[in-house]
Amino acid sequence: MSPGGGSGGKREPSFHQLRLFLVLAQELHFGRAAARVYVTQPAFSQQIRSLEQRLGVVLVERGGGNVRLTAVGQSIAEEAGAVVDAMARLRQAADRHAGAARGLLRIGSLGAEAAMPYAQAILSHLRGKHPDLEIEVRNLTFVDMFGTLLTGEVDAAFLRGPLPGGIQSLQLATETRVVCLSDDDPLADRDTLTLGDLADRTVVDMPPEVPRSWWDHLTLNPRPDGTTVRFGPVVRDTEAMVLAVTQGSAITFLPSAARRLYPRAGLTYVDCPELGLSTAELAWLAAHRNAPAVSALREAARQTLRPSGSPALDSASEGR
């Protein structure tokens, strides 16, 4: 059915689509709008086309990357903004009257982050304190780990820093990082490695939807001596990452917990002090910070970590 087709069988637009359309109305560029919410451009474009089909109108004039809102699109943008604002007020009112944390809390987890002991302890504490709160843990890939937070698909997430702007966090733990090599790599039998030892090695890469600054930081690109990293196969999640390493296509760097979480035949982990530390973070949007369910999760994290003397107990470590 074309955007200008008849009204029969049309569905109501989703709240998610309206939020994406508002981003497009601000950016007037599909690529920039998609990057802003950390989704692929084709997926973003499909959501806008679906919105047009559901409304039965053409919202944007397309031509290359840049777009222009139609007269109808400008009118719809104003109404969509009012809907989004009203929904925010509705949620705030419901949260105030509910008092306690209840309903559904959607928590994202980058790979096996939710399986870490501190994450399990936080979730256990949360369930004990708020039995009426339904907790849904969703696995995230490198591609959607930030976008799902920014679009509201998850309320909070267990991630690894550094985090992009607009996301607040609570530091949960730090640990050393290790080099992940195939068993037949000549360096695999070493006890420790330096960045110099790895200068000629190819490193796995991230899809374009992943913030480049995040991966450059974690791969130390450029290196302290000014040389740039040679990147190889592109991976979307940790399983694909370790598979690429076992096949000898590249190396990668992971938190030391990977030794326990991702033991694989043909894989070796070697210490490399120069890689520095990896930081585990509990992240949320500033706008959702005081929602009862998110607030309960943050409090559960603080209560759970208090015996360890974690820096997360310092209020200065929140909200950066």
Automatic annotation (TrEMBL):
Give a yes or no for keyword DNA-binding in this entry. Answer: yes
Keywords noted in UniProt = DNA-binding, Transcription, Transcription regulation
Record's keyword annotation contains Metal-binding: no
Q: Per the database record, which ranges form the HTH lysR-type domain?
A: 13-70
Question: What are the transmembrane regions?
Answer: none
Give the matching InterPro entries: LysR_HTH_N, LysR_subst-bd, WH-like_DNA-bd_sf, WH_DNA-bd_sf
The record's section on SUPFAM superfamilies has:
Periplasmic binding protein-like II (SSF53850), Winged helix' DNA-binding domain (SSF46785)
A Pfam family hit: LysR_substrate
Family annotation (PANTHER family): HCA OPERON TRANSCRIPTIONAL ACTIVATOR HCAR, TRANSCRIPTIONAL DUAL REGULATOR HCAR-RELATED
Question: Family, per the entry?
Answer: Belongs to the LysR transcriptional regulatory family.
Put simply, this protein is called LysR family transcriptional regulator
Taxonomic placement: Bacteria, Bacillati, Actinomycetota, Actinomycetes, Kitasatosporales
